[in-house]
Design a protein that fits this description.
With 195 residues, this protein is mainly α. The chain has ten helices and four strands. Strands 1-2 form a two-stranded parallel sheet. Strand 1 (6-11), helix 1 (17-26) and strand 2 form a beta-alpha-beta unit. Helix 2 (43-57) runs parallel beside helix 4 (79-87) and helix 7 (111-128) crosses helix 8.
């Protein structure tokens, strides 16, 4: 998944201009670092992200349809975001409230592993310093490693299949089916004339 960008938000009160410039220089090419007053999702951040995503996918617009799955956070579905998605030729699909744990591939297959790997990588790196000192740079170096190994180093098609987003829903996991109380029946082929 080397095509899709990873965005890291940093707070202006935590990362000054000089440090911000240094951090941007150390980040892998796939990572964008955005500095805002607060390092939190907002309408403006989401609009900017959707526009970035549209630019990254632009050359594939003629052959593929892109669907962005989001939860019901207001910043994900505000009118400005929907307009930006439309301009980028990206369809927005909203996962209903309290259903991301069943239907959102990242919730099911990524976040726990991501947190665990980041914790382990950070502990390993901090243990290698002479003082055990914690710094932004150390934390971000750990983050870069996790992004490259986990997000870009794995094939995520299985995650999408298990929640029914690929293969015509023929590979939905039994766990997801159970959580949704969904029984999948393979379609019956149409009969030929005279049968």
């Amino acid at each position: 998944q080397t095509l899709l960008p990873q965005v890291v938000l940093v707070g202006a009160n935590q990362v000054g201009e000089e440090r911000f410039a240094r951090i941007r220089m150390t980040a892998p090419a796939c990572v964008r670092i955005w500095r805002y007053t607060k390092a939190w999702m907002s309408n403006a951040v989401m609009v900017r992200y959707v526009r970035l995503l549209g630019r990254c996918l632009q050359e594939y617009r003629r052959t593929y349809r892109f669907i962005l799955y989001v939860d019901v956070l207001k910043a994900h579905i505000c009118p400005a975001v929907l307009r930006a998605a439309s301009a980028a030729n990206i369809w927005i699909c909203v996962v209903p409230a309290e259903m991301t744990w069943v239907l959102q591939p990242c919730d099911i297959h990524l976040f726990a592993c991501y947190k665990q790997m980041l914790t382990e990588e950070f502990q390993r790196r901090s243990g290698l310093t002479s003082t055990g000192e914690i710094s932004w740079e150390l934390m971000l170096d750990s983050l870069w490693q996790v992004i490259l190994v986990l997000l870009q180093g794995r094939d995520w098609s299985h995650a999408f299949e298990t929640v029914g987003l690929r293969k015509k829903q023929t590979r939905i996991s039994t766990c997801t089916q159970s959580k949704l109380r969904y029984e999948f029946y393979a379609p019956t082929p149409p009969l030929r004339a005279g049968e």
